[in-house]
Design goal:
The structure holds two protein chains of two kinds. Helix content of chain A is about 0%, strand content about 50%. Chain A is mostly beta strands. Chain A is globular and about 40 Å long. Chain B has strands at about 10-15, 20-25, 30-40, 45-50, 55, 60-65, 70-75, 85-90, 105-110. In chain B, strand 5 and strand 6 form a beta hairpin. Chain B is globular, with a radius of gyration of 13 Å. The chains are: A mainly beta, B mainly beta. The interface of A and B includes residues 31, 45, 98, 105 and 107 of A.
């Protein structure tokens, strides 16, 4: 069955380190998204992509970057991890701008010490 | 996108229908109503969406009032596994892809 996966599921890192979170979907969806979820803030959009080589900033993009080299993957990179980036990160994908129901991955819990 | 208002929490007896309300009085004509839920520690799960007609699928029914200012998500026979936070989201379909999740309603299904 087609699906969306995230890895790792849990990650502990230190302040200042570069961290990359993986997101992989097998639905061949054009659109992919990264959100973070913190207590009291719900889900907030970090970056999104409408297709290969397309990336866009979301609501809370500072300190994060993404690249889209193929349809299946949208890795999220924290250039220099900060304690404020301790959060649960969710990746999502949707088929197109017309049929745009988003389907979410299981999440990655990141702790920055 | 229109703002939504949901009660912070609700309880429901197992086997009974769970009716989750959502107010979206500023909804525009081209905005859809989406419902997602999030079971503890899992990714949000799509439930249903609609524009103005009532919708039903294998998970739930969505009832949208005629003036579209409010809607109700109905889980016809709630089970313990339906305990989750339910989010009502109003947004333009096919355009801005940002899903704005608010605080949602925490539904607790009790035996």
């Amino acid at each position: 069955d087609a699906e969306i996966t995230q890895s790792p599921r849990h990650k502990i890192t230190e302040t200042g380190r570069q961290v990359t979170l993986a997101c992989h979907q097998t639905w061949n969806h054009n659109n992919m998204f990264w959100y973070r979820q913190d207590l009291g803030h719900g889900l907030r959009l970090i970056h999104y992509s409408y297709g290969v080589h397309d990336t866009n900033k979301g609501e809370v993009s500072d300190g994060y970057s993404v690249s889209r080299s193929n349809t299946e993957d949208l890795p999220l990179t924290l250039e220099s991890a900060a304690s404020s980036q301790t959060s649960v990160y969710f990746c999502a994908s949707s088929p197109s701008l017309v049929t745009d129901t988003q389907y979410f991955g299981p999440g990655t819990r990141l702790t920055v010490l | 996108d229109a703002k939504t208002t949901q009660p912070p929490s609700m309880d429901c007896a197992e086997g009974r229908a769970a009716n989750l309300p959502c107010n979206h009085s500023t909804i525009s004509g081209n905005e859809y109503v989406y419902w997602y839920r999030q079971i503890h520690s899992q990714g949000p799960q799509y439930i249903i969406h609609g524009l103005k007609n009532n919708e039903t699928n294998e998970m739930a029914s969505l009832i949208i009032t005629e003036d579209r200012k409010s809607s109700t998500l109905i889980l016809p026979h709630a089970t313990l596994r339906d305990t989750a936070v339910y989010y009502c989201i109003v947004r333009v379909g096919g355009g801005n892809n940002d899903m704005r999740f608010g605080a949602g309603t925490r539904l607790t299904v009790k035996p």
